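Need residues for this backbone.
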């Protein structure tokens, strides 16, 4: 059953097949790579460096994209993995590239079926997943984005959010 908004009006949902459909907006992989680089350039990220590498994991080619920006907390990670959310604004004349909240999803899913995001920020560490493989395995009828965060409270203990 679909989630309900106030007044009983059903909320719109996205089927897992949309992850692939959305990725076809990139006709070539370099456009998808550009989307991911754009995210590191935006003013709220403050990244000064960006690295792209490839590695083999269990005989599968994996691309890694890494920057030295501010990182993502739980709320920001969830917004990045959600569709259509963007609250980016210019800072000190630095105008953001992303405006529609779709670039990470379309870019990452054009390059592969799965994306795992590891992020470290001032408040702690988060891992988020956008995965067609996972959604197929669990038989999902709408997109789910698992996120696990560990937030540092003090030097000796952590809080796990799920």
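Answer:
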């Amino acid at each position: 059953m679909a989630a309900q908004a106030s007044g009983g009006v059903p909320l719109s949902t996205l089927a897992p097949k949309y992850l692939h459909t959305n990725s076809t907006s990139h006709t070539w992989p370099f456009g998808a790579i550009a989307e991911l680089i754009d995210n590191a350039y935006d003013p709220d990220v403050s990244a000064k460096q960006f690295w792209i590498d490839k590695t083999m994991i269990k005989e599968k080619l994996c691309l890694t994209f890494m920057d030295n920006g501010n990182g993502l907390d739980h709320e920001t990670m969830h917004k990045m993995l959600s569709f259509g959310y963007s609250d980016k604004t210019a800072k000190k004349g630095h105008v953001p590239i992303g405006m529609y909240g779709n670039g990470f999803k379309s870019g990452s899913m054009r390059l592969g079926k799965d994306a795992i995001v590891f992020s470290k920020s001032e408040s702690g560490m988060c891992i988020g997943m956008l995965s067609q493989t996972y959604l197929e395995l669990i038989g999902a009828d709408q997109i789910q984005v698992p996120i696990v965060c560990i937030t540092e409270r003090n030097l000796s203990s952590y809080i796990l959010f799920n």
